[in-house]
Amino acid sequence: MDKLNIMIVGVGGQGTLLASRVLGNVAIKVDHDVKVSEVHGMAQRGGSVVTYVKMGKKVHSPIIEKGEADIIISFEELEALRWIDYLKQDGTLILNTQRIDPMPVITGKAKYPDSIEKKISNNYKNVVTIDALEIAKQCGNIKAVNTVLLGLLAKSTGIDKQIWIDSLKENVPSKAIEVNLKAFEEGYKG
Amino acid sequence: MKKLMLGNEAVARGAFEAGVTVAAAYPGTPSTEITENIAKYDEIYSEWSPNEKVALEVAIGASIAGARAICSMKHVGLNVAADPLFTASYTGVNGGLVIMVADDPGMHSSQNEQDSRCYAKGAKVPMLEPSDSQECKDYVKKAFEVSEKYDTPVLVRVSTRISHSQSIVEVCDRSEFKLKDYVKNPAKYVMMPAMAKKRHVDVENRMADLKELSNTDEFNKIECGNKEIGVITSGIAYQYAREVFGDVSYLKLGMVHPLPDKLIKEFACQVKTLYIIEELEPYIEDFAKTLGIKAIGKEKLPVIGEYSANLISEKIFDKKIETKPVTDEEIPIRPPVMCPGCPHRGMFYVLKKLKLTVSGDIGCYTLGALPPTQSMDTCVCMGASIGVAHGMEKARGEEFGKKTVAVIGDSTFIHSGITGLIDVVYNRGNSTVIILDNSITGMTGHQQNPTTGFTIKGEPTKQVDLEKLCNAVGIDRVRIADPFNIKEFEKIVKEEIQADEPSVIISQRPCALLKSVKFEGALKINNDKCKYCKMCLSVGCPAIVDKGDHVEVNEALCVGCMLCTKVCNFDAFEKAGE
User: Fold this and answer.
1) CA B413 from chain center: how many Å?
2) Phi/psi at B569 (nearest 5 deg)?
3) pLDDT at A169 over 90
4) Which of B15, B133, B179, B259 has the most CB atoms at less than 10 Å from its CB?
């Protein structure tokens, strides 16, 4: 692997920060240079959030530009639509089929776009959908959505599974580890 | 050992390794994690100060007393701390003194995008600027050496993308710093005219010496490549430039004040076309121009907003990235919102209902200016709400004043709202001030403050009694209200704005994200009872959604705070899963 650019997009509060921590840790374990960039503060609070993870021999800019992402994990459908321009033409979108209405939709000022997966699939051929919320519920904690998605991501990167599991263990509080490992395995199955 | 660290975490590590023993700060995005991480080291006394001015004064005191001290803030925090900064430049230091300042180009979480480099120039203190986490750590350590060698506070400037990017850091051990002797020295530490006049001469001499350092030290280095193009840059802009220009020649500046005149001239002579790439102000460019150097910079690149590699290559080389849009429909924006269960929501519901003029302040509650509540009229800076309300009343008269309230958070009130309140009392104002006491500093991610009863390290301490504090400055009418008891809250607001004297309402309910806050669990709507009157939508909760012909609760978001049940006239909300 020469370079791997991964974007994690979603809604503030969905647990994207843990996902980026685990990812960064994985990169160190496989001895790559890595940069993980995210924005805290006002940008969270239920707003649109994006994390950039870049690994490779040498990483300069921490930010992934349009058309540069190998993989985008989207925690939410509308956010996938918002950031899809950043995916390489042959890149992979991992799409969690969860929908969180933004304020303009809630107040009736805007409409939540329909058939998002289909629209994206017209332009990009590698779209993998998953109902991570349902899987997380079955695993025993709806907060494990992020770990389910990490499982699916792990499979898409081709990086040794054990490295992911080790990294997960280092970044999840011990009382939550069991649920998260289960969620990871379920995600890995795809 | 290699570790992946946020820039802010690396700054903290640098302070630790440099033997720092005193750290003070006021939280502010994107600087907050610096001091949060410092507080994890038992070897370092650390504190959240009431504001940045106090934080810097604490650090100055520690430095004069012989310790290495660090003080951290966001860019606008340096405005608050500017007064001690400009004179600490004259007193110089005893133990090393480093001031971290975090700029926010693009205003991810700020009210302006001022460029802190101008402060280094104005206050005549050196400024370093790291470009990744490793440099954050290294520069902070070196900053202490520069501080002591040149008898000066040292500013270290980071920005959002440096502070909040993680990159690899080689971690070292701590070198204990032996407390320097403290010797009385009024000529150096008592700045009154006779002493300050002499110290100003020292400051000018020091800056001349520092210019020499800037010209020779490895902070500023030429990276030789293709000489057709040369790029002068620093900080995060260096990383973007590397992506855009590739194998050309770079003059990477790690010390941005004073700038290295000789080195810049030398570099400019070596290359054919010179670019200067810097976010915000043409700070390096203006300096280069005074040296008679021609360079391409702000004539092509903006002074507004954050840069990226794409933006630079678009503006400089006219290279546009073409992507085929997936859809031509408009993608709804997703602005930040108050969380489900947020105590501020009930208060804004009332303020909107009463159609009041609301002077606002800095915190999560600033979101009250956005739809759906849209009930905030002004937001200027930390603590401004009270002075602004007072000024409005003095300009438009008492009747207008009786339709006006100031809204300010507990931490912001202590930061600089209290002086505004004293002004209202002293100058016979009539304002009503609502202090939002949510038991924590919310916006920056839950920091303790003087009203919470705990220190940064979680030790119990005296708690400021807001009610008594307001009484003490001369407010006789202080009311405590629960913002989730909407009816009672409305009644209290109506009474207080009508009162012929200034008053304070303490809106008391903890932040919904605090671990100690437990709600009932998600609600759902009973469609047999719901009349689709949309009253519940008026509270503006992100978990309640208008589906066009009915209303739905998003159970994954709803926490069960029950606020919506208080505006529903048909008992249509019930516990989900029942």
Assistant:
1) 16
2) -90, 0
3) yes
4) B15
B344-508 with B523-575: one CATH topology?
no
B199 close to B191: Cβ distance less than 8 angstroms: yes
Q: Positive or negative, the Cα torsion across B91, B95, B96, B100?
A: negative
Q: Which CATH architecture has domain B220-317?
A: 3-Layer(aba) Sandwich (3.40)
Reported as half-sphere exposure (CB side, CA atoms, 13 A), residue B182 has a value of: 10
Provide the strand spans (E) within B21-144: 22-25, 45-48, 69-74, 97-103, 127-128
What value does the mean pLDDT take over residues A54-69?
95
Fold of B2-216: Rossmann fold (3.40.50)
**Dihedral sign from CA coordinates of B311, B315, B319, B322:** positive
Distance of alpha carbon A112 from its chain centroid, rounded? 21
What's B192's DSSP letter? S
> What distance in Å separates the CA atoms of residue A49 and residue B14, rounded to the nearest whole number?
29
CB atoms within 10 A of CB B559: 20
Q: Is B388 helix (H, G, I), strand (E, B) or coil?
A: helix
Query: Any idea of the CA torsion for B372, B374, B375, B378, to the nearest 10 degrees?
Result: 150
Q: Could you give the CA distance from residue B390 to residue B432 in angstroms, rounded to a whole number?
A: 9
* Count helices and strands in chain B by DSSP H and E runs: 21, 22
Which domains occur in chain A, in start order?
A: 3-189 (3.40.920.10)
Residue A1, pLDDT above cutoff 80: no
pLDDT bin (cut points 50, 70, 90) of residue B390 is very high
Q: What is the DSSP letter of B369?
A: G
Domain over B344-508 is classified CATH 3.40.50.970: yes
* Inter-chain touch A37–B443, beta carbons under 8 Å: no
Cis omega (within 30 of 0) for bond into B258: yes
**Cα separation values, B286 from A16, B150, B255, Å:** 41, 26, 16
A27: tokens are 């990169």
> What is the count of residue pairs from A and B with beta carbons less than 8 Å apart?
177
Q: Which residues of A fall within a CB distance of 8 Å from B444?
A: 41
Q: Which of B273-287, B314-328, B497-511 has the lowest mean pLDDT?
A: B314-328
What are the residue boundaries of the structural domains of chain B, listed by start? Answer: 2-216, 220-317, 344-508, 523-575
Q: How far apart are CA B264 and CA B278, in angstroms?
A: 15
Residue B78: helix, strand or coil by DSSP? helix
Q: Tell me the pLDDT tens digit for each residue of B5-33.
A: 999 999 999 999 999 999 999 999 999 99
DSSP letters for A39-64: --GGG-TTSEEEEEEEEES----S-P
DSSP of B160-174: HHHHTEEEEEE--PP
Report the mean per-residue pLDDT for chain B: 96
Tell me the mean pLDDT in the region B404-430.
98
Q: Could you tell me the CA-to-CA distances from A58 to A54, A76, A157, B343, B573 in Å, in that order? A: 9, 31, 19, 46, 55
CA–CA distance, B145 with B222 (Å, rounded to integer): 23
Contact state of A107 with B333 under an 8 Å Cβ cutoff: no
Q: φ, ψ for residue A26 (rounded to 5)?
A: -60, -45
Helix B384-396 / helix B418-426 crossing angle, nearest 10 deg: 30
Residue B30, preceding peptide bond in cis (omega within 30° of 0): yes
| E strand intervals along B422-554 | 432-437, 477-481, 503-508, 523-525, 544-546, 551-553
| Chain B residues closer than 8 Å to A85 by CB | 323, 325-326
Q: A180, A147 in Cβ contact below 8 A? A: yes
Contacts of residue B239 in chain A, CB cutoff 8 Å? 60-62
What fold characterizes domain B523-575? Alpha-Beta Plaits (3.30.70)
The nearest CA of chain B is from the CA of A150 a distance in Å of 19
Q: Hey, are the CB atoms on A100 and B337 less than 8 Å from each other?
A: no
